[in-house]
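>> received
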Amino acid sequence: MSTGAKRETYIIGAPASVWLVVLLVIPCLYLLFQSLTPLSGAGLSLENYENLVESGTFRKALRRSIIVSVWVTALTVLAGYPIALVASRASSRARTVVMVIVIFPFLLSAVVRAYGWTVILGENGVVNDFLVGIGLIDEPLRLIQNTFAIVVGETHVLLPYMVLSLLTVIQRIDRNLEAAAMSLGASPPVIFFKVVVPLTLPGLLTGMLLVFSLSMTAFATPFLLGGPRSPILTVLMYQYAYTLFDWSKATAVAGVLLVLGLGFVILHRFVSRRLMRDVEAG
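>> returned
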């Protein structure tokens, strides 16, 4: 790239960079500064984080947040691959129908989706009425206000991110590669794991990054489906800030979320490079 082209690139990208710094970098730095400022206001210290770590509620919320994010990511991968494969191999009209169904949750607010799952999973909801009606259970199961409900709700909300990420790379795969593997005697599972999965790693890793990060920082769905008895970090931060008015702990929780997000991005980049290097070498 010539010097003139580089200069034009910098000029074009300058406004976006300025807005990125103003709207993202500076608020994040200010948040970290506030989390490192003790109630006494004397200098910077880790006092807020130390008080937070000593809290059993925080440790449970941290563990639950990670467990929920891992489960949601795994379930979206398991559900995303079949949907993306069907959409990529379907006719144009069928693909449109599948994508409308997948993207439909984006057209509804998080509150509407959460209350929809409350109707389905509630004590008098569709699932419990069906199970009681067929005699499989005698009393309704507790399917909401717990971790299970959060995982179900978040999987429903974030599945489109995984499907779209996988579909983008699956459509680029040459179908002749699968036909060649089949002609050599490879079974469909072998073709999937030996041909499709390695070629879709970029989309898979991107989808995992999006789903895990969004699941870790989600608020509305966990708040409505999980309840105060099953808080994750975002719900706990809300409780500290607007129920207990303990802003020191609230900013510390926000700082933990920020560090976890940055750490996952760094881990994602490291794993992506290693896996792609191994695939190219193999």
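>> The mean pLDDT is 86.
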